[in-house]
Amino acid sequence: MIRAIIFDLGHTIWDILPDDGGLARAYATARATLAERLGRADLPSAEALQRAVADVLRESAPMYFMEAPSLEQPPSDAWVDQGFRRLGLELDAELVRAITPPLFATEIDRLHCADGTIEAVRNLHDAGYTLGCVTNTLADTATIRAMLRRDGIEDVMRSVVVSADEGWRKPHRSLFEKALRETCAAAHEAVFIGDSPWHDVGGAQAVGMRTVLTRQYVTRPTEGMPEPDAVISHLRELREFVERW
């Protein structure tokens, strides 16, 4: 019998709309904070700071964010520190950690949930299932919880596992195992649902969970990838499979 349902977030519960300038504003705020804390007016521009961090992330993407052998994920402030150092800006580690979270939190105002999605999640909770989520992201846990709270589902998520704070990214088994512990479910009693055949389906299957691939927001290539137990086009379809199992 299924007791726990654990979700991916991006492109599973919500989609992310294009940036509307929020990232630029976040870097402008960060630069202003640095100027005040350091007592300097000769800092690189906000645009230069943003571009430097973006370059580091883009160059590192094949190693850390795609189907690479290593699943280790450095803390998010490491990317900011590397980018700033390229501009000759060497900051105290505590200061870098302080200014980093808002730089990766700008998606909070760009989340879009398709009609019926939040209702489907809450209906599963109301039906007695224990819910959780595991997400690959550069945002910290506080930001992810704020996103869940914004859409009215933080209260139903018993487990919130965030790669940026775990040091590993999906499909690393430790993230799925933590979600299982926090939902008090054995692997055979849990279902994982996500949009990625590799990160979500493959990772959850490796620890013994049933898996559901969602195509609600995006359809990803499946050739040569782990095969899910079910495929859905909207989260409202999930309950039918869970009850059948």
End-to-end separation: 6 Å
**How many domains, as an integer?**
2
Overall shape: it is: elongated
Beta-strand content: 5-15%
Quickly count the helices. 10
Overall pLDDT metric: 95
Under CATH at level 1, the class of the largest domain stands as Alpha Beta
Note the quaternary state here. single chain
Count of beta strands: 8
Q: How is this structure best summarized?
A:
The chain is built from ten helices and eight strands.
Question: Overview of this structure, please?
Answer:
By secondary structure, the protein is of the alpha/beta class. It folds into two domains: 4-16 and 111-244, HAD superfamily/HAD-like (Rossmann fold, 3-Layer(aba) Sandwich); 22-108. Helices cover 44% and strands 13% of the residues. The protein is built from ten helices and eight strands. The strands form two sheets. Strands 5-4-1-6-7-8 form a six-stranded parallel beta sheet, with helices on both faces. A two-stranded antiparallel sheet has the order 2-3. Helix 9 links the parallel strand 6 and strand 7 (210-214). Helix 1 crosses helix 2, helix 2 (46-64) packs across helix 3 (76-86) and helix 3 crosses helix 4. It starts with a strand and ends with a helix.
